[in-house]
Design a protein that fits this description.
This protein has no helices and 11 strands. The chain is mainly β.
């Protein structure tokens, strides 16, 4: 069973950048669709970005041009590079895996989340 652990969350100033990591064990997730979600207090969880096995990435409109999702060659870590952060980006960020080699909006495994707080 794949286990996902997020890290990199922090409290940073508005307009700063932050890199989140999602480590997988005990196997590589190179053959799976990986995604990032977030949930702000009092709000529904929302999809942020996905990356397919061929490296193709898709993004929610509210992060286009600011965030970038990637994965390392070994498939053990998935990243979310976040830039031009705004207070509205404050949320718990989760990574998720779809145990298929395509993205279909469904996810089988979730991490525990990492908190991102943007301060002004």
């Amino acid at each position: 069973q794949v286990k996902l652990v997020e890290s990199g969350g922090d409290s940073v100033q508005a307009r700063w950048s932050l890199l989140l990591s999602c480590s997988s064990s005990p196997v590589s997730v190179n053959n799976y669709c990986m995604a990032w979600f977030r949930q702000a207090p009092g709000k529904e969880r929302e999809w942020v970005a996905s990356i397919e096995t061929n490296g193709r990435a898709t993004y929610a409109d509210f992060v286009k041009g600011r965030f970038s999702v990637s994965r390392d060659n070994r498939g053990l870590t998935t990243y979310l590079q976040m830039g031009s952060l705004e207070p509205e980006d404050t949320a718990m960020y989760y990574c998720a895996a779809r145990l298929r080699n395509w993205c279909d909006g469904r996810h089988d495994v979730w991490g525990q989340g990492t908190q991102v707080t943007i301060i002004t």
